[in-house]
Sequence to fold (554 residues):
Amino acid sequence: MTGKKTATQSQKLMVFVLTMSLYGLATLFTELIPKFQVGIVEFSVEYFLFIPLTLAMLFDPMSAALGAATGELVFSEIMLGQFGGLGELEKFITVTIGVYIAGRMVKNPKNAKMVGIAAMTGVILQLLMGTVVDILKVQFAVTDFEAVPGLPESVFATEGFAFLNDVLFSGILFCLLPTLFLVPKLYGKIEPLLGMWPRTEETALGGVNGKVIAGSLIGFAVAVGAEMMAESGLSLIDWEASWAESGTALAAGMAAAAALAVITLLVIRKRGSVEA
Amino acid sequence: MEGLKQKLSENILDKFSMDFLRNQVLKNAYGNDDTVIARLDPRILLVWYLFFAVVPWFSDNLVFLAASFLLVAVTTILARVAGLVLFLFGIGVFAQTGYLFLVSLFFGGNAQTILPLLVLTLKVATVSLASITVFSGLDPDRLSNGLMWYGCPERLSFSISYAYRMLPMLMEEFQNVLLSYRLRGCAPDASTFMGKIRNLIYQVKVIIHSFYPLMLNTAKRSRTTVEALELKGYRYAAVNKEVKRMKLASLRVTNDDLLFLAVSVFWIALAVLVNTLL
Fold:
């Protein structure tokens, strides 16, 4: 084997499948294991983020990042029926960005210091973006957000506290330490299983540059944009609702039409079953 | 009293064994393909879901929200969703809003805080129940076909089908690795408080360590999977229109699907009507 040091398409697919199954399995467990709280401090095994982080540092970061986000979406959201629609887009994007940047930062997986810095950066990025979007989400969902006594402060307090708690607890315990343990151990062992060369200074994709940052910012803008869309959609539906409320006759008409459709379909169905 | 407490905690621990989790997940995925919901056309169900996943967020009307909630509650019952999923749903709703309520009381909120939070709870509950109905009520293959029809990336449909098939195997493998680590290791004495903390740290450590062999094994397996896919020309088939058409030919909108839609529309229209009359 000569020359080819970058991953081929099928190897990228392998990395995708690998990250997806492992991270999906892990998030499935975290979804199932109840969180326990001591006072206000929440001890949750929220993040098995060390799995995609480790794999992104050893393999192609983009495939690992997308695999992780898809795995979480499919295993823990869709399979358990916890799919939250718009909110999942935000999680998908933030996980992808966090893991991808962490993976790009590491040029030489043997350099423990860089691995540690990259792991923490990935976690903090992901959590920070999640916190910002979370605060926005509550602000849009509750229309008279400012008017409710104690609500704004409590949202900022709970979100800010959850962020710190997650960084300190999940970040260090479940991301930093396992990554530091797993990356050197797997380095050079897991790559041949996928038919690849281990990552070295020369084969690394190169550090985080302007293009990566710009791409991440655009991604984050899309995540926030999904929430902004909610705001502009708000007025649209409001307009529709007021239009519907003014016309009792219209609502009655709609109900009558739907009722007619139900009856017709029932009749057709009954006939069909008689014939069959 | 002490005995009762012990029995209770044993009972709960029993319930949360690995096998129980696996059974519940499998039951959720494959156990209910004979329900009313599972037989519906995935495309119709996805449109239906889109309505109940988006519209409740924008409405503050209690009558409309309550009606939507009732409807999705009925469909959830019809879908015969596994108990564990419903339990998680309950926890999720509480975690999103109940917790917020407690904290806002702490910051000087009062009974006035309840109403907006009730609205928020109804919204969250409606959206999650709609997703539970669609995503756990549908057979995974039908779901991924439906998503594909709407032009979702082939990668996502593949991931869904793959995940449902591989999950039992992955879970079993993880359990075996975990058990072998436990057999070989020596758990710290958990009778004192410090011992309990040491035990917790030990358990977490075992879980993290067991990902090392698991990663290597899964790497081998994913290589096999991808090579098998390549042999069958997966990457070309995935983007080929003809293949897609053949794959989706089994989808058919029947009378029942239209009936389901019509009943839903009727119910919501009725809610709007009642609201205007009030």
Notes: The CA atoms of residues 44 and 257 of chain B lie 7 Å apart. Chain B touches chain A through 95 residues (CB under 8 Å). The mean pLDDT of chain B is 79. The two ends of chain B are 53 Å apart (CA to CA).
